[in-house]
Write a structure and sequence with these properties.
The complex is a heterodimer. Chain A is an all-beta fold. Chain A has no helices and 12 strands. Chain B is mostly beta strands. The chains are: A mainly beta, B mainly beta. The A-B interface holds A 33, 37, 43-45, 47, 50, 52, 91, 93, 95, 97-107 and B 33, 35, 42-45, 48, 56, 58, 88, 90, 94, 98-102, 104, 106-107, 109.
């Protein structure tokens, strides 16, 4: 079975704090892709990053960084020096080769307080 | 802007009614996927079409149906609506028949009263 777990339902931080959003996935496939999406209050899904199962390199994009560890089936997302505009629901998702349908986690609502 | 368009943006209707949601994929994309985001079920895959043919089905109710037309736009038809059908419905598109590279539209927010 394929599954994505985001155990943190809601996180509140004060502006400029660092915050890590956890994502744990389950799949038996060896080829798969992991994603993070941001859903601001307006509702659209904003693509943040895609990682394939053969690339365990961590990635940094500005204040965002991602830590992919196959050994623990995790793909965690860290926002450094959080800002109020980072307030949103963040979804982790999985697609395995052959199915091509997103399996989304339940999302983590991040509130960044000024 | 992903290039995927969805209409209408908002839809309010009553229980028992039928509605049609429309999706136009990115230019050149042949696959369309429908997803439902509801409060109790989260974001779930409903159905996929490729070049007019149904290719994959997820947790789509029998009251729901979809099709993809020759011009590649797709419609999701929801009938005998219930309060629980209130949700945000997303369409995504990709070039291939099944791709990890899906581009999401802005969604249609359906409210059933």
């Amino acid at each position: 079975a394929q599954k994505v777990t985001q155990a943190q339902t809601e996180i509140s931080v004060v502006e400029k704090e660092d915050v890590t959003l956890d994502c744990v996935y389950e799949t038996r496939d060896t080829t798969y892709y992991l994603f993070w999406y941001k859903q601001p209050p307006s509702g659209e899904l904003v693509f943040l990053i895609r990682r394939n199962s053969f690339d365990e390199q961590n990635e940094i994009s500005g204040r965002y960084s991602w830590n992919f560890q196959k050994s623990t089936s995790s793909f965690n997302f860290t926002i450094t020096a959080s800002q109020v505009v980072d307030s949103a629901v963040y979804f982790c998702a999985l697609i395995t080769s052959g199915t091509y349908k997103y399996i989304f986690g339940t999302g983590t609502r991040l509130k960044v307080l000024a | 802007d992903s290039g995927v368009t969805q209409t209408p943006k908002h839809l309010i209707t009553a229980t028992g009614q039928r509605v049609t949601l429309r999706c136009s994929p990115r230019s050149g994309d042949l696959s369309v996927y429908w997803y439902q985001q509801s409060l109790d079920q989260g974001l779930q895959f409903l159905i996929q079409y490729y070049n007019g043919e149904e290719r994959a089905k997820g947790n789509i109710l029998e009251r729901f149906s979809a099709q993809q037309f020759p011009d590649l736009h797709s419609e999701l038809n929801l009938s005998s609506l219930e309060l629980g059908d209130s949700a945000l419905y997303f369409c995504a598109s990709s070039f291939q028949d099944g791709s990890y590279e899906q581009y999401f539209g802005p969604g249609t927010r359906l409210t059933v009263t």
